[in-house]
């Protein structure tokens, strides 16, 4: 067909009305799903996305907007302010409010402070009232934010000075907790190295400054980053940065630095490497070298004595799991020689995967064997006594061995390399100590999904938590049905952690609460988002409460008019409170006992009162919903008309045969009509 077309070609597509109806249906479905997710306490429907959000929240906590100054920061800030350093600004409140006068000093953090490596700003606010005084030191990310905080405490109501101190303390607590949940990035790790150097060498600030000074003309931080990574390796085995730096020979370090030149961090890195060698944790090896040698020797001897072909075993893809299993058993005190004696030669040689078959044999024998009193890691105690340093933090080595023991090498590397690995390791060690079935859960993990997740360690932690909770909940229910007694501590832990309990018995526990996130010291729904201090408190309270709290915070902060949204929620909360009171009164009235000695209809007096209370509760709930829906005036008016209580008094109830017919209901006012509705004739 050629030539011009004179008519429009009809298209097979839905009309405007159908598209609008479909859109409304999708929005209603999405709102219903979101409400259901809030009831279940889930941050997201996808476990992968929920784990990624949690890890991102921990990453944000590592660098909070406001945090209290450390002692080294405070001393350096005071000194810079007294010396008249450039950029410092001073302001005093124009007039006392509530009797308090506030003096503030804001300025850039000095270079010799532990937090001065990222251009942060400090704020020193000192308030006085008669004989009372309050001094607050906080660190802000930049000048603009520091000055906004300053203006709030000098021009607003000075009651926020105490809130500013609580905010700084809470930010510091969240940052300290997040450090055990996710890995810091390079600038953040440098900052913590600075804190550790100040704590380890408090009487030698010049040496600290030299250790933090980059080399070359282009600010080369390679030596500083190498030192920080080595210290983090030791930290993963339980030795804190400050303890390790405090054990270094400062005299030898200074002499080496003055003789050979270069940065102090370079020579400190060499001393730390030597100490790590004596502690048997060089290159982040999670296994004590003495234990590793015993494992290799026992395995080689057992294979040789049994006449098993060694090459297929050592080249098997599951050999790493076998070695990690033997290392764990030796660390737990098992005799490897006894476990590897009289092995089934023919079955192992004929197996498709000899290492996997041998691993199953050893696992079965270990269940029926007893661990001895042999030291778990024979070389560690002697090394700690020699170096004079002892573990003060958790040792993540056993958690790493569990990942390598039960997961494939590719999955284990993805999990161990994830930023959220510290939080998973800490939780796995806690579960193992409590006797949770971690091995059974790791054996059934979907490894493909874990490797492809945004945060493999965070996703694995979520899956393990769900599985452990389910197993423990089922075990508890079976024990209750059988009438068996459970250990009191274990039962209490299950009741607190389970999410699959009967509805109404216990609410789901928020993920943040499970991970030990410090609880927010603020009443989230009472914080005024128009106040910069309280708005920051809202932002920093994310992840510390329930999913409903987080959704409330997001809605408040994302609104173009947060004050109006905050007022709307307050009005809705008041209406819901009234509805709850009315519902309680309705229940009380509904329980009014019947008196057969009275007149026939008087037994319904309580029921009529209950009906009035329920209608009032419905009206208040409708008003609360209207406040939250964004159209408070019109929706509240419709709710008032639809849920109007009856005009008859409860005590004047008429008999059914004499009760007058009810009047037809009044029509609801229409939005298009501007005059009063016409009365019925």
UniProtKB/TrEMBL annotation:
Protein name: Uncharacterized protein
Upper taxonomic lineage: Bacteria, Bacillati, Actinomycetota, Actinomycetes, Pseudonocardiales
Bias (Basic and acidic residues): 591-604, 611-628
Stretch list, region Disordered: 368-397, 574-681
Pro residues biased stretches: 659-668
